[in-house]
Specification:
Residues 1-20 form the signal peptide. It contains five helices and 30 strands. The chain has helices spanning 2-16, 33-41, 48-53, 104-108, 372-376, and strands at 84-88, 114-118, 122-124, 130-131, 136-139, 145-148, 153-156, 159-164, 167-169, 177-182, 185-189, 197-200, 203-208, 211-213, 220-223, 227-232, 235-237, 239-241, 243-245, 258-262, 265-266, 270-272, 276-278, 281-285, 288-290, 298-300, 304-308, 311-313, 335-339, 342-344. The protein binds 2-acetamido-2-deoxy-beta-D-glucopyranose (4 copies).
Length: 392
């Protein structure tokens, strides 16, 4: 019964989401308002992040509470909790070398902590990568905020970043020009890859309730010694190489990387790398995967992957039933376990390495819910439509 319910939800979700790249992304996850209404009555549903803030009808005045709601390896990311509110009013006039007050870029490069919000719906098309400074929150709640059709977000050599409730889509490469990354420093940037969010040499990063689609390189890549990251409640769709964790087998600083990937919805049109892991420790918990075209989870260089309480729904293509890289034998030496995952439509997984929980301590960051939690509640991943004065 719950399987049918889930497939039903998935069908509705596919129906309401974007179908091609340049269509405006709608409120993809709010597909059943009756259900949402019922949820508000009994509000808390068992997702520890959402239960921490979504039931509060005063979420707007209590925005900074969000920073206390993180779970997993990125839970210490405080973002701009200790700083002022900065309001983005200007969606145009992006000047990468000399950012203009009122733009998103002016806010994110500042030295002091800032909690960045918006004052109307906007599509921001950046001229160059958005170079973030430490202790910033980008909080899109209350409006439809899209970073689209230009270079997107770069989190490089910084810490304590929260990105919440925005759409990131159709990101393209930029670079070979001057870009400011703090009030005191403007530097020459090489060519960028066209990632949605590029995390490079950074720590304490939390990306929650974003909708990411159709970028030139990765949707979210974390490389070069980045760690203490949580990627949660996101909705990802229409993309080839979804998430790269660790850029090179030779880069040993990534040995201590710890990343939590929880409560995400991997939707239609995704091909591979959800994620692709190198070295490091990956806790992949309570996500829903639908119909990957090559594989869902893969990697190299002996990562430890602790996969718990996820749902994997294979596509109808008989060649893509295996959730891991088909025919690739390398993973036989890794620690890779599947604990309480549900495999549907013929999906399968081949575990490797240690099976005992003690081998997965460094890849354990939160208590997994049983997979049935995902089938019994309506998933509400991706950017949300939050209205003032009522629970979101
Ligand atoms: C929406 O959810 C409610 C409550 O579960 C259910 O009764 C109703 O049939 C659903 N409506 C649609 C259109 O799926
Ligand atoms: C980040 O650190 C690396 C290595 O120290 C350095 O090459 C790079 O220029 C730094 N990037 C920025 C934006 O500071
Ligand atoms: C997929 O495999 C099933 C079971 O082996 C078989 O019945 C079906 O015809 C196959 N489908 C295709 C398209 O090959
Ligand atoms: C099935 O998947 C394989 C491997 O990715 C691919 O080569 C093939 O084209 C797919 N078949 C269809 C009908 O999509």
């Amino acid at each position: 019964m719950s399987t049918f319910f889930l497939i039903f939800l998935v069908m509705i979700l596919l129906d309401t989401s974007i179908s091609s790249k340049n269509v405006q992304i709608s409120e993809a996850t709010e597909w059943n308002s009756t259900r949402r209404q019922l949820e508000k009555e009994s509000c808390k549903i068992g997702n520890p992040i959402d239960d921490c803030w979504r039931c509060d009808s005063e979420w707007e005045t209590n925005r900074k509470v969000l920073a206390d709601c993180a779970i997993g390896f990125g839970r210490n990311a405080v973002g701009g909790q200790d700083g002022d509110i900065y309001v983005v009013k200007d969606s145009e006039n992006d000047d990468p070398a000399n950012p203009i007050p009122g733009t998103l870029r002016y806010g994110v490069i500042q030295e002091e902590p800032l909690w960045i919000i918006f004052d109307h719906d906007m599509v921001i098309t950046l001229k160059e990568e958005l170079m973030m400074n430490s202790y910033k929150t980008i909080d899109g709640r209350g409006y439809n905020i899209q970073i689209a059709d230009g270079p997107c977000i770069t989190i490089q050599n910084v810490s304590n970043i929260i990105i919440h409730n925005i759409y990131i889509r159709d990101c393209v490469p930029g670079g070979n020009t001057m870009v400011r990354d703090s009030p005191k420093h403007v530097g020459m940037r090489g060519y960028s890859d066209g990632d949605g969010i590029s995390i490079f040499g950074s720590r304490d990063v939390w990306i929650d309730h974003c909708t990411l689609a159709n970028c030139r390189d990765g949707l979210i890549d974390a490389v070069v010694g980045s760690t203490s990251i949580t990627i949660s409640n996101n909705y990802m769709l229409h993309h080839n190489e979804v998430m790269l964790m660790g850029h090179s087998d030779d880069f040993l600083d990534d040995k201590n990387m710890q990343v939590t990937i929880a409560f995400n919805f991997f939707g239609e049109g995704l091909t591979q790398r959800m994620p692709r892991c190198r070295h490091g420790y990956f806790h992949i918990v309570n996500n829903i995967y639908t119909g990957w075209e090559m594989y869902a989870i893969g990697g190299s260089a002996n990562p430890t992957i602790n996969s718990q309480g996820n749902i994997f729904i294979a596509s109808d293509n008989n060649s893509t039933k295996e959730e891991t890289i088909p025919g690739d034998e390398e993973w036989k030496n890794w620690n890779w376990r599947s604990d309480g995952d549900v495999m549907l439509n013929g999906a399968f997984f081949t575990p490797s390495g240690e099976t005992g929980p003690q081998s997965y301590i460094k890849a354990s960051s939160m208590v997994a819910r049983p997979a049935s939690f995902l089938t019994n509640t309506s998933p509400s991943a991706g950017a949300l439509y939050c209205q003032r004065g009522i629970p979101c």
